[in-house]
């Protein structure tokens, strides 16, 4: 937007300050440019020109900002938790942030454990006791978010093992402790179940 006062209009007074007309003209220009006002009165003889750029190239800056935020989330959080415009406003997916405990946070604690073990405990015991076998071990107790899934897998493996043993007996196949141990290793069941001792019957 471009405005021009009539020729011969004074802009500054004797003290160098803006005249009331010039101050009003400047405030009107700012209000119209910022959208605070949609119309205004200008002095007689003043000219007004409105210049605008219809290009949408400015949208590239918005895309760059979104990409930068996602990159920062991946670097600092270990996961992309940004929502973009989902839900009506930019935000963070809290369910994705909960996953950070299993990625970046756990890696940090693993690094601390390894650093203390190799940089402090093992050298100290080697110097004072001549052997690193007596070096203490530091373990951070972290909640396991996959605990329920692991329990479900163990239960499923045990059910598969018992179903297989039951099916073998129904087919009159020989089931010994060696067979049970082999099946337990195959299904990942630890410890392997033990067969009950066969009951001896008195002779008729």
Give a structural overview.
The chain is mainly α and 204 residues long. The relative contact order is 0.05. The chain has 4 domains: 2-49, no CATH class; 59-99, no CATH class; 103-143; 147-187. Strands 1-2 form a two-stranded antiparallel ribbon. α5 (147-170) packs antiparallel against α6. 49% of the residues lie in helices and 3% in strands. It is elongated.
List the helices and strands and how they pair.
Elements: E1 2-4, H1 20-34, E2 47-49, H2 59-77, H3 94-98, H4 104-129, H5 147-170, H6 177-187
Antiparallel strand pairs: 1-2
Helix pairs in contact: 5-6
Strand order of the largest sheet: 1-2
- Discrete helix count: 6
Largest sheet: 2 strands, antiparallel
- Low-confidence regions: none
Please report the total strand number as a whole number. 2
Order of helices and strands: EHEHHHHH
Helix and strand content put the structural class at: mainly alpha
Q: Give helix % range.
A: 40-55%
Please, how many domains? 4
Query: How would the global form be characterised?
Result: elongated
- Mean pLDDT rating: 77
Percentage of residues in DSSP E strands: under 5%
Radius of gyration: 39 Å
Distance between the termini: 116 Å
């Amino acid at each position: 937007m471009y405005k021009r006062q009539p020729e011969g209009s004074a802009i500054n007074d004797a003290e160098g300050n803006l005249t009331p007309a010039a101050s009003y003209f400047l405030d009107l220009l700012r209000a119209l440019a910022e959208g605070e006002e949609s119309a205004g009165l200008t002095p007689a003889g003043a000219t007004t020109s409105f210049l605008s750029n219809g290009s949408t190239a400015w949208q590239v800056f918005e895309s760059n900002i979104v990409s930068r935020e996602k990159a920062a989330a991946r670097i600092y959080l270990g996961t992309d938790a940004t929502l973009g415009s989902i839900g009506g406003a930019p935000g963070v997916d809290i369910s994705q942030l909960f996953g950070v405990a299993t990625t970046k946070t756990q890696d940090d604690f693993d690094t601390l454990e390894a650093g203390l073990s190799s940089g402090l405990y093992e050298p100290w015991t080697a110097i004072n006791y001549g052997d690193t076998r007596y070096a203490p071990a530091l373990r951070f107790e972290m909640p396991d978010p996959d605990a329920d899934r692991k329990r479900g897998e163990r239960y499923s493996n045990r059910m598969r093992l018992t179903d297989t043993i039951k099916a073998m007996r129904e087919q009159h196949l020989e089931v010994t402790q060696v067979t049970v141990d082999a099946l337990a290793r195959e299904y990942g069941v630890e410890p392997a179940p033990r067969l009950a001792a066969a009951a001896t019957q008195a002779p008729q």
